[in-house]
Design brief:
725 residues; five-stranded mixed beta sheet; mainly beta; Methylamine Dehydrogenase, Chain H
Length: 725
């Protein structure tokens, strides 16, 4: 999943040429607060659900965690997931990834989350959230270590545990800083120096924590072929390697564990990599905690081309010997759940008899005739009050069954899409088109249901890189992205149906980038950027994508923007040099206009105000917001916003003659979502502290048909849309 880059600060001399500073007196008013109602535009999942946890004593209470989209509580009465971490704001974007979660069996209202998306040097430290009301409100403790909820091994765990002997004691396993312990319900933490393995700067560290009776077991994931992989403490102080650990796992990672308290057996899944990718071998073993005897209960051994690891494991709380495990990274035969009712002596593959009903989230077919049972299955949970009620997380959804045969997505309310681009057409059935990570482009015929057409097909894209509409011919839309059968497509019915470009440049295979279409749909301008960031020359087509010619004068890597009125004019902002380039001959040649603008950050964005030729807005992140009304010959700095990450436009307010302007940025001390009805002279904040969603700097757009309606792209909480309350 993508991560935002850090702010680039503009020096005092970097923005001197061709700048007209707008009068600051016109922008003196402080932003107002307007009440909005925020909802998700329904897609249904689309991201990696890394953990699912039923509360052991409260029927119907469950929690889910994701790698970049926060945590959720299941509301059994409403049959939907309730987001619990939307209050985390811009500065806390790294906390939207949930490394682990824990509940207290003795105190049902208590919930703990360990947060931190990346453990890299550029990322912030992790934090622990503590709740006494099932996640409705939180207390927070910032950690001195980093966590990695979106790194390899994110589907292992849980790494957080309430001690079975003492509800005030918590354990937290880290990747690179050993085992942490808290004696005050997570308010303060210290390293458990008695935990034997030595932390390293790489590897997985502690992969799981599980209670077995009054003992605590910890998995250790830094495989070197000789070190023990499972440790335990029976008194909360002294740790020891679990004796007799099975042969064949010394070079594997313990992924997950589950304890059958009636049979007094601990099940552990193993794989030769932490996953979710890269696993080619795995096994399942159980430990009789009374006798110390280990038994290999692997349902099926990986062999030949059928390679995979094992991931999730869960037991039925009141059915001794009933256990479910998942395969993972099994691409040839497709992943499955194996279920045993005799302690692992025999197994049944639940995929083999599964009937999948994905009518509620049609995108799960991925352009094929039938959906897959799952992939990246490392989260598995069995309802403690119903052994046939099973949930498993995948790379895109949560599947559930209550009869071991019929499986449906149990995903309402859980939205994890990483959204790249948004387009709200001025006419037509759909008020919204979206370009997304992993699931390509969607046509939102309704905002309250997953798009009925599923993913855009012909061709199917994974991650979309471009989406554009002809301003004077809105039925014509183009899209680009990463696909196996072509990387560019067009639509003549507003995005309902698609056809691939008849031809495409060779660069499109490995570097599909953004695309623009002229106002009259006569010219396409396609740029190319490889996965490693290498920029290549742009190409132009004047025959609907049948043939393409290189545009030598186009600034490499710049995102093309079409003038919404003049079909012969295109713009491109060279973020490396801080120069605005323009073409007046239909994209054949480009020449520099304004120079000396903010430079050095590829995420600076240029946008054209609808219905106006040459009216350009530049979002320069921490360097502010700029505007040109002469086609980029000169720019003025908009004094009302000191930070601008993305800007968009919607229907003008009643009585106004200029579109509403929407901004993700800062007009004061808070990075937030704002609307201006007077060309950025004054702003109203339209989100609030409970609705922040971490990093939201990718895209924002208003609805050209509904004043006040705004669509916001998030990096892990899907598409948020807001209306004035």
């Amino acid at each position: 999943m993508p991560r935002p880059t850090r702010r680039t600060v503009l020096t005092a001399t970097a923005a001197t040429a061709a700048l007209l500073t707008l009068p600051t007196g016109a922008y003196a008013a402080a932003p107002a607060q307007e009440t909005y109602r925020w909802r998700n535009a329904v897609i249904g999942g689309t991201g990696f659900v890394t953990g699912i946890l039923f509360h052991p004593t409260i029927p119907g209470l469950a929690y889910a965690r994701t790698d970049i989209g926060g945590a959720y509580r299941w509301d059994a009465r409403a049959a939907r997931w309730i987001p619990l971490t939307d209050h985390l704001g811009w500065d806390d974007w790294n906390l939207l990834g949930v490394e682990a979660m824990a509940v207290d069996p003795a105190h049902p209202d208590r919930l703990y989350l360990a947060l931190g998306t990346y453990a890299q040097p550029w990322a912030g430290n992790g934090a622990v959230l503590r709740s006494e009301d099932r996640g409705a409100t939180w207390a927070r403790t910032d950690l001195a270590v980093k966590l990695g909820a979106n790194e390899d091994g994110r589907g292992t765990g849980e790494r957080l545990l309430v001690d079975p002997r003492d509800s005030d004691t918590l354990w937290l396993g880290t990747r690179h800083d050993g085992l942490l312990k808290s004696g005050d319900r997570g308010e303060t933490w210290e390293t458990d120096t008695g935990f034997p393995p030595a932390p390293t700067a790489t590897g997985q560290g502690v992969t799981l924590l599980v209670a077995a009776g009054r003992a605590v077991y910890a998995g250790w994931g830094d495989a070197d072929g000789t070190a023990p992989h499972l440790y335990r403490t029976t008194d909360g102080t002294a740790w020891e390697p679990v004796p007799g650990q099975p042969g064949g796992v010394s070079a594997k990672v313990p992924i997950r564990a589950a304890y059958d308290r009636h049979a007094r057996e601990l099940y552990v899944t193993y794989a030769n990599a932490p996953g979710p990718n890269g696993q080619t071998d795995g096994s399942v073993h159980k430990l009789d905690v009374t006798t110390g005897a280990w038994t290999d209960v692997t349902p099926a051994a990986p062999q030949d081309a059928d390679t995979f690891g094992y991931g999730g494991v869960a037991v039925a709380a009141h059915r001794p010997g009933t256990v479910v495990v998942s395969t993972n990274n099994r691409w040839s035969a497709v992943d499955t759940l194996y279920r045993s009712t005799d302690g692992g002596r025999s197994w049944v593959s639940l995929k083999d008899t599964a009937v999948l009903d994905v009518s509620e989230t049609p995108y799960l077919k991925w352009g094929e005739a039938e959906p897959k049972f799952g992939w990246w299955i490392q989260a598995v949970a069995v309802d403690p009050y119903d052994p046939e009620h099973i949930l498993h997380g995948t790379g895109a959804t949560v599947y559930g069954t209550r009869d071991l045969r019929t499986w449906t997505p149990v995903i309402r309310g859980l939205e994890e899409t990483s959204v790249r681009l948004l387009l709200s057409p001025p006419v037509g059935e759909a008020h919204l088109l979206s370009a997304n990570g992993d699931i390509g482009v969607l046509y939102h015929d309704r905002l309250t249901a997953s798009p009925a057409r599923g993913m855009a097909t012909d061709p199917v894209f994974g991650t979309a890189t471009g989406l554009a509409q002809a301003a004077a011919r809105p039925s014509y839309v183009v899209r680009t992205g990463w696909g196996d059968h072509g990387n560019g497509a067009f639509s003549t019915d507003g995005g309902r149906t698609w056809a691939p470009f008849a031809g495409q440049p060779e660069l499109a295979k490995d570097a599909p980038g953004p695309i623009a279409v002229s106002a009259d749909a006569g010219v396409l301008l396609w740029t190319f950027v490889a996965g490693d960031g290498t920029a290549h020359p742009a190409h132009r087509s004047a025959d609907g994508g049948a043939s393409w010619a290189e545009v030598a004068s186009y600034p490499k890597g710049a995102t093309p923007v079409a003038d919404p009125v003049d079909p012969g004019t295109f713009y491109a902002y060279d973020t490396a040099g801080g120069t605005l380039h323009a073409s007046t001959d239909g994209g054949r040649t480009f020449a520099a206009r304004a120079t000396g603008l903010p430079a050095g950050d590829s995420q600076y964005q240029l946008a054209a105000a609808p219905g106006r030729s040459g009216d350009l807005w530049l979002s320069a992140k921490g360097n502010g917001l700029y505007r040109s009304t002469d086609g980029g010959a000169t720019f003025g700095k908009v004094g009302s916003a000191w930070a601008a990450h993305t800007v968009g436009f919607g229907k003008a307010a009643p009585g106004a003659d200029y579109p509403a302007v929407y901004l993700v940025g800062a007009t004061g001390t808070v990075t937030a979502v704002y609307r201006s009805d007077d060309q950025a002279r004054t702003w109203s904040r339209i989100n609030d502290d409970a609705h922040q969603w971490g990093w939201t700097g990718q895209a924002v757009t208003g609805d050209p048909r509904l004043h006040g309606r705004v669509y916001l792209a998030t990096n892990g909480r899907g598409i948020q849309y807001g209306d004035p309350a």
